[in-house]
Design brief:
The chain has a domain of about 100 residues: Rna Polymerase Sigma Factor, Chain: A. The chain contains eight helices and no strands. Helix 6 crosses helix 8.
Amino acid sequence: MSDNEPDDITLLQRSSAGDSDALLAIHKRYANLVYSMAWRVLNDVGLAEDVTQDVFVKIWQGGRRYDPALGRFSTWILTVTRFAAIDRLRRERRQPRPLEPFSQDGGEPAALEDMPGDDHAVWERGRHLHLLVEQLPAEQRQVLELAYFGGLTHSELAAHLDLPLGTVKGRLRLALEKLRVWWQEDPGSGR
């Protein structure tokens, strides 16, 4: 973002007031990021496109819900996207597909390497987190990915994996604790 471009909060305020040019600017900045998150959760191009559109409609209709005191706009929009994608997954009543690992070139459908400034930093932190997740034991990684990207509850995870509920909760807790420790210890986390 150059010095003469409005920041995200200004664009969001203008968009919420009905300024379609402001919404277009937000879309231009975040469409790849939103689509990538939706695609990762849904593993379906058409559904990811639908969710991407839904997220920007939500911004148009209710962007005032964002509170800058609670975090960065990019984090908020990814959270909105993740929940919208999980809701869509549940509406479709689909079982989550096995998650494909990221390719070595960082390949998701969008060209994330071309993102400017802050967006690129968010993507880099996400890639770093993905590398940490890959270090988890397979059973912990599976539970974490199905919970986060598949949107499964603890009970749904237990049924899907044919495991006791306590085992699922334990694996998820251990995975999150390991990630927290690794993230805090690693200078590459971008904290």
